[in-house]
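Quick start: what a row looks like.
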Amino acid sequence: MSAAKAPPKRTRKTPEPPPPATPEKPLQAARIEGLMGLASLVQGGCLIAGLHADAMTIGKFFPPVAVEVAKIADDNDSIAKPIDFLIKVGPYAGLLMALQPLVLQLLANHKVIDATKAVGQGIVPPEVLEAQMKAEIMRMQAEAMQAQQQAINDANEAAEAYAKLVAPQQDTATT
């Protein structure tokens, strides 16, 4: 009898740890972006208030300030915390930015704000929107009328074609 050989020992491979998660953006870049988003909101407020020079000043001179503040935040926790909070609420800030023109336009439509002061935000006088809506309605009515006329024409053509097909049968039936 031959002795059975034992199966080879299995060695357990320890799974390799996953690579450390790399942030989508370096923290400093995310901080700069958050600060620029805040500056954009302030700039929009300046435009609404009619402070055009201030809005331009913020747009022109704030970007390097944002970079320097983000650098300081790397080593200063009291500066980093509010900026990091801005980053965490970033999606909500994005929602606020998206809602801003809608709210501003509604406020302009109801004469709460002067639309001419918010033109930089894409806001137009309500009379412009009213004219655009009336034009759109007229375009839709014209298309509906054209579709209706085409349907009437198609129905008349079909009736004529049917009459031509039926006429020979009627002639033979009467004779």
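That is the whole record. The radius of gyration is 35 Å. Residues 27-123 form one domain.
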